[in-house]
Amino acid sequence: MDFMTDRDVQKECDELRQRMGDMVEEMDVPQHCRTTFSTNHDEQLKAQGNTHYFITSGDKIRFFFEKGVFDDKGDFIVPKQRSLNKVGHALHAYEPLYKKVTHSPKVQGLAKKLGLISPVILQSMFIFKQPGIGGEVTPHQDATFLYTEPLGRVMGLWIALEDATENNGCLWFIPHSHNSGISRRMVRTPKGTYPMTDFTGREQTYDEQKFLVAPVKKGSVVLIDGEVVHRSSKNTSEDSRHVYTFHIMESQDTRWSPENWLQPTEELPFPQLYTK
């Protein structure tokens, strides 16, 4: 759906991208925290589950990188502006511009139209999908990582800050897959054990013919049910595919799993979406 007016598209999308560009210029990530991001089962356990940097990022703003952007010493082999996979997971809490967009009247109005009574914000991310190297995101369901009881209480809002096309890695979905439950979960392992997360179950094998492509224009928002199967291909183009995305949960009569990697903290409880 078209989320912003034509005037707002240029202004708000470009402002979000400009602010992120400034943040990248200012970033100083120690070499031991230079973590790559992946949705591949085994790569997740190796790259994320073993790192304190990832597991404690829910109430912070941290930088996650594409594969192959560092040499053996951990130094950049590409310009740092082209090195990032994403920034997360608390932009909505600590960056005023992102907080403003997340709590905007349009977002709140959309949530109310969907009948959400007490939605809270779980996490937020800026996804880069870098030209030429922006990695594939394999088929997955967000509820694998953001599990609730009952299911069906989590939704992603995926705001395209640039045109998302087949060439630069737009989203693909399996229609009606949100009705089939989930086949795996990422869970925290007992304190003091490694890796720090593990999976129960395995991702299913999906028929590629069932996926439908979903290109969208700059300024569009895609609503992603927590159980719908979706993916994106590698960015093989010369254009980036910048996105601001965040997840919300209907908190009324919902149990957030204490086994999820992402947990509210004293510093940052899950904030209410609706503001007075």
UniProtKB/TrEMBL annotation:
GO MF entries: metal ion binding
Q: Which UniProt keywords apply?
A: Iron, Metal-binding
Q: Which cofactors go with this protein?
A: Fe cation
Pfam families cross-referenced by the UniProt entry: PhyH
Q: Which InterPro entries match?
A: Phytyl_CoA_dOase-like (IPR008775)
Function of this protein?
A: 2-oxoglutarate(2OG)-dependent dioxygenase that catalyzes the conversion of 2-oxoglutarate to succinate and CO(2) in an iron-dependent manner. However, does not couple 2OG turnover to the hydroxylation of acyl-coenzyme A derivatives, implying that it is not directly involved in phytanoyl coenzyme-A metabolism. Does not show detectable activity towards fatty acid CoA thioesters.
Report the sequence similarity comment from the record. Belongs to the PhyH family. PHYHD1 subfamily.
* Protein name according to UniProt: Phytanoyl-CoA dioxygenase domain-containing protein 1
